[in-house]
Write a structure and sequence with these properties.
The protein is of the alpha+beta class. The chain contains 7 helices and 12 strands. Helix content is 21%, strand content 37%. Strand 11 and strand 12 form a beta hairpin. Helix 2 runs antiparallel to helix 6.
């Protein structure tokens, strides 16, 4: 297991400090703000700790303030309802006495029902695509410092984009992209851990899809990009340490916001989760 994955698992193992109140820790250095996916996943872990007999099937969250990576985050869970089939939880993430993130999550007993799903789009196998190390070795000397530093940082999630041409062309294109994602090391078998890791990685690359239509990317220095809200639905069992195809599109951008959607497929073509997110994509004023 890589050190980055071990660190993520430690961050997801929240500390209980009172009934329905938990404390989470994040990276302490090298970050200007807490990664949104970490707050989503920690909030889900906190909510799930208060539900004993059923897994989550959906979550909806709002980012309220940037997280401070130098201090812990306190998660306070409100037990909204416990029904025969469903349970509902609300979780608020707090730093410096203020809410920075709010999550609502729904849990359901496992049961059989009607099934259908969109088919997985065609995509090259992840083994045929360059890894981030390959990209760094080939193009690192030509990258701006902030881009090269991104690729040099060890991360718990491995990403392989199916098409890197947009970064070279820098011109407007149809706002679609497919990327393969997985944890960069073997995870424990507990399905709750895989759901938490999927929640973490579901915030990666998604908002960047909205910028494709404008010939920009999250690396563009003239763009201010930040997640505003996030929704995730779990459909079928999966492992987050096996390759998942993240098929993404952006149906709209307006008002300095971009709407993005994602479908996560297992290697054998099963739709295992769906995601939607709106984010800030504001052009910075020239100084």
């Amino acid at each position: 297991m890589s050190q980055a994955v071990a660190n993520l698992l430690a961050q997801l193992d929240l500390e209980p400090i009172e009934k329905d109140i938990f404390r989470g820790h994040g990276p302490q250095a090298g970050w200007q703000r807490v990664f949104g996916g970490l707050v989503i996943s920690q909030a889900l872990v906190a909510a799930a700790r208060t539900v004993a007999d059923r897994p989550p099937h959906s979550l909806h969250g709002y980012f309220i303030l940037p997280g401070d990576p130098s201090v812990p985050i306190v998660y306070q869970v409100d037990r909204i309802r416990d029904g025969k089939s469903f349970a509902t939880r609300r979780c608020v993430a707090i730093q410096h006495g203020k809410a920075i993130f709010s999550l609502s999550a729904s849990f359901q007993i496992e049961e059989e029902g009607l099934e259908h799903a969109f088919s997985m789009p065609s995509a090259p196998d992840p083994e045929t695509l360059p890894s981030e190390d390959d990209i760094l070795q080939r193009y690192g000397s030509m990258m701006p410092d902030h881009v090269r530093q991104y690729f040099e940082r060890e991360r718990p999630i491995e990403i392989r984009a199916c098409d890197l041409s947009r970064y070279a062309r820098r011109k407007p294109m149809e706002p679609f992209q497919n990327v393969w994602v997985r944890a960069s090391g073997r995870l424990p078998d507990d399905p709750a851990i895989h759901r938490a890791v999927l929640s973490y990685l579901s915030d990666m690359t998604l908002l960047d899809t909205a910028l494709i239509a404008h010939g920009r990317s999250v690396f563009s220095r003239n763009m201010q990009v930040a997640s505003l809200d996030h929704a995730l639905w779990f459909h079928r069992p999966f492992r987050a340490d096996e390759w998942l195809l993240y098929a993404q599109d952006s149906p709209n951008s307006s008002g300095a916001r971009g709407l993005t959607r994602g479908s996560l497929y297992s290697r054998d073509g099963r739709l295992i989760a769906s995601v939607a997110q709106e984010g800030l994509i504001r052009q910075r004023s020239p100084k």
